[in-house]
Amino acid sequence: AAITMYAAGSIVLDAFSGVGGQSVSLAVAGLTVFACDINQTNVDHTMHNARVHGVAERLRMVCGDYFARIAGLAAKWMPIGRKFGAIHVDMPWGKAYEEETYPLHRMGDGTLSAYDVLEAAAPLSDSFVFKCPRNVAISDAVKLAYHVQSIKGGASTHNVAMPLVEVFVNGDKTVMAVIYIGDIAAKRLEDIAPPARVVDLTHKRWTIEQCAKSMLSRGKRVGCASVTFAPFA
């Protein structure tokens, strides 16, 4: 919904698209979608779903390695200044999900880094939507935003545009989270009423789930946190 609201009328990229649930939903909402997945069966399912929903003409689906595909797009688009309205990334989580704090640098089979994935895509958009497990450290969400902005040349350790973390809760259980980075985060924050106070989480290695539980226990559904971190620690 956020992508369709803030990137309406644009072309968006759905990376690691799986069977295409997000890709087809975005196309149904009227967006033009580029999608990429390394599994041919997933690609076939995605195109079937797109045809069933009547949006195959708005979906370009390719099978292949993400980094190779992104490099090819960058080579074509960067010289002419072309960009995606937003990039949606839903990487495989892998066995690291079982750890107490989820490592963004060891996703999938343990060799995929969220930092590398967004670094490769950074020149191709100013808005990023990153789906992640509930047990990602809140400070790592800030680090990921810092990394993207540093690649784009707009960040220092004292000037990081705040990412927006949206938490999906079922009852009292946190299911997953989405980290919004860049223009889409700024636009969404403008539309959210400011919280009553800012919580300093600098000295708390809290996960996103722990932050959500703390907020819900105080009857809050929107909160603001400040985090100081060493970006290359």
Structure commentary:
InterPro entries: RNA_cap_Gua-N2-MeTrfase (IPR019012), SAM-dependent_MTases_sf (IPR029063). It comes from Vitrella brassicaformis (strain CCMP3155). This is Trimethylguanosine synthase. Belongs to the methyltransferase superfamily. Trimethylguanosine synthase family. GO terms for molecular function: RNA cap trimethylguanosine synthase activity. By secondary structure, the protein is an alpha/beta fold. The chain has one domain: Rossmann fold. Helix content is 33%, strand content 21%. The chain contains 8 helices and 9 strands. It has helices at residues 2-6, 21-28, 40-52, 66-77, 114-121, 138-151, 183-190, 208-217, and strands spanning 11-15, 32-37, 59-63, 86-89, 127-132, 164-170, 173-182, 198-200, 224-226. A 7-stranded mixed beta sheet has the order 3-2-1-4-5-7-6, sandwiched between helices. Strands 8-9 form a two-stranded parallel ribbon. Strand 1 (11-15), helix 2 and strand 2 (32-37) form a beta-alpha-beta unit. Helix 5 (114-121) packs parallel to helix 6 (138-151). The longest helix has 14 residues, at 138-151. The protein is globular and about 45 Å long. The mean pLDDT is 88.
Descriptive tags:
alpha/beta; single chain; seven-stranded mixed β-sheet; SAM-dependent_MTases_sf; two-stranded parallel ribbon; 8 helices; Rossmann fold; RNA cap trimethylguanosine synthase activity; 9 strands; 21% strand; 233 residues
